[in-house]
UniProtKB/TrEMBL annotation:
Pfam annotation, one family: Polysacc_lyase_14
Protein name: Polysaccharide lyase family 14 protein
InterPro entries linked: Polysacc_lyase_14
Location of the Polysaccharide lyase domain: 69-287
Molecular-function annotations in GO: lyase activity
N-terminal signal peptide: none
Keyword Lyase attached: yes
Amino acid sequence: MYDLLDHLVPIKDFDTGFTTCEHINHPNLDRAELADKSLGVHKVFSKTTHSLVEPPAPARSTEDAPRVAWEAVYPEGSVNPAGQIPGGFGFYLSGPPSFAKCLESATEAVFSYRMLLQDGWTWQKGGKLPGIFGGSGGLAYGCTGGRQDQRCQCFNLRPMWRPDSVGELYAYLPLVPQNTKQLSAVPPRSIENSDYGFSVGRGAFHLDRAVGNWVTIAFRIKLNDAGIDNGELQLWLDGKSVINVNKLVLRESNESKIKGMHFQTFFGGHGDDWASPKDQQAWFSDVTAAVLR
């Protein structure tokens, strides 16, 4: 039997945090409700919903399956938030007030959640999953979608699925040569597209296990000291580290902070060939975060 805490917080030593998972009790993790108000949800994309529902029972019976989850609906033909048919959902999440306050001075943190894709899920060309974001003040928002202005003032990191469940980390980081060098070296394949983010570690993991069953995705981010390329990123799937990158520049000023989670999911890419080929659903739960330092 695996330890769910090890999947949601793969780093043992942490100062403070929160979790919406009812199956975890840890003295340094405050219990929070999976609800917008409790988790500091803001800047919600108005054309989609993230209803709180009872998710379907997983195919693999487990005692720690979530009993409530946010439901993402991807209608047939839906592609990216700006498409004619809205699908998935999108918002930013800073955590409970006490945690959000701790983030103001944090330089390293872990964020995680559990995800379940419906039976019969079809991958199409690809799509985005919730991740993490940060930056300088209001410039931390809207770091994605081809933004070019003040890209050194923000960072955004989200997992992405590709055909046949191939996974990668889709990264928007400051456009500096050091980041290109480090991200390009991540195996088995990394692809630069400075206008629309950097595909990091494509094929380092697969998400087929999420079809009909709960999986855990966890991130660790360590901010670099301003002027030094010592930032770090790490991604775990079900407690296994699948991507780990160091010597990065995530900020050029100490005013740039870790802000929380960019809880966004949709099919795309851009263009109709990315669109969901049928009505599909996914569920997200057990949102957890911890400040390491």
